[in-house]
Known about the structure:
Helix 9 packs across helix 14. This protein folds into 2 domains: about 130 residues, Rossmann fold, CATH 3.40.50.720; about 220 residues, Dihydrodipicolinate Reductase, domain 2, CATH 3.30.360.10. An 8-stranded mixed sheet has the order 13-12-11-7-10-9-8-14. The protein has a 6-stranded parallel sheet with strand order 3-2-1-4-5-6, with helices on both faces. The protein has 15 helices and 14 strands. By secondary structure, the chain is α/β, with parallel strands linked by helices. Belongs to the Gfo/Idh/MocA family. Glycosyl hydrolase 109 subfamily. Keywords: Glycosidase, Hydrolase, NAD. GO terms for molecular function: hydrolase activity, acting on glycosyl bonds; nucleotide binding. InterPro entries: Gfo/Idh/MocA-like_OxRdtase_N, Gfo/Idh/MocA_oxidrdct_glycsds, Glyco_hydro_109_C, NAD(P)-bd_dom_sf.
Amino acid sequence: MNDLLNIGLIGIGYRGIIHLENCLQRNDVRIIGIAEPNNASISDGKLLFDKYRKEHPKFYSNEDGYKDLLNHHSLDAVIISVPWDYFFDISSYALSFPIYVGIEAASATCLEQLYRLKEIKEKSGAECMLLENTCYHRDVMAVKNMVDKGVFGELVHCRGGYEHDLRPIKFDKEMNFGRGVNGEASWRTKHSITRNGDLYPTHGIGPISSILNINKGNKFTSIVSHASKSVGLKSYVEKNEGKHHPNAKDQYILGDVITSTITTSNAETILLTHNTNLPRPYSLGFRVQGTKGVWIQEHGNHLHLEDYCDNDEWMKNSHRIFNEFDHDDWKNLQYEAAKTARHQMDYFVLREFISSIKAQRKPEFDLYDMLTWLAISPLSEESIRNGSKTLEFPDFSQ
């Protein structure tokens, strides 16, 4: 394979612009085409090409620009960063080409979509990676290293989730959302009106799946989900614009807190939480509990390992353990990662994606991992819709 990879980007908004800048920082990548319907985002993208003194690619701003990009260029890979509503149509089209497809921040609405993506990928021979950056968080990779070396003993239970106050993102300053509104409020908020489940599971379940070796000898076997009442968004609109605002009404069905319990073939349990409608600091709420100790990441790292301490208190020198088990990639490449556009873990996501293309191998987290993680959304919705019914978890690798 040519040392210089030809890559196209579909979507250069909030997340896509980060992937663009990180690609432009590399000498082994050439961006030859971008599909983006928003003129402001195109302008931002052109400024980055000027910043890095790179030749401007072909920009496609029409509605089907992603099709033109894929049909008119010889691509090694494409990176898709689009709102959830466009995820399936664009991803399914891209996977029909025998290239590498990187997908950012996806969400599925039904299992049929996921089985269709599997069918298309297996027919075309494409490779796919969900670009879930939390899998490459430094602490997560260190804990994975500890788990693999037996520091936690036999694993029993894990937790994770997406706990992020998105109220200022779901509404603009006038408490409006939908078409004509800038930012994620133009598309994200309507999912809080039409859906009730874990809408964004990958931030939490990605790292936990890695730690538990899901699809690498271990599998999810069942899921049951529960939803709290939905009052957070209505309360937020009332607080800011009053009870008579048109969006201060009982139209939101997404439970303010969604919890899902997942079982595995190795008999571990997982508790996954989705909490985006209430005031709170950001957290992914990770917990890894084994027979020799526990790690909790909640506004800092809390570690208790019985082989390293004699009592039931949190270790006061846990940073030494994290340094001892720091992943080699972080040790060796942290200064390169520090140059990335926003989050250092994005450097390692792109590095893995590019490395898999060059080696013509499967990415570390492939299409079957993506399908497994995304299935949590429609399964949680179905479970809640049926009175928190326990459901069998599908195996997409079969």
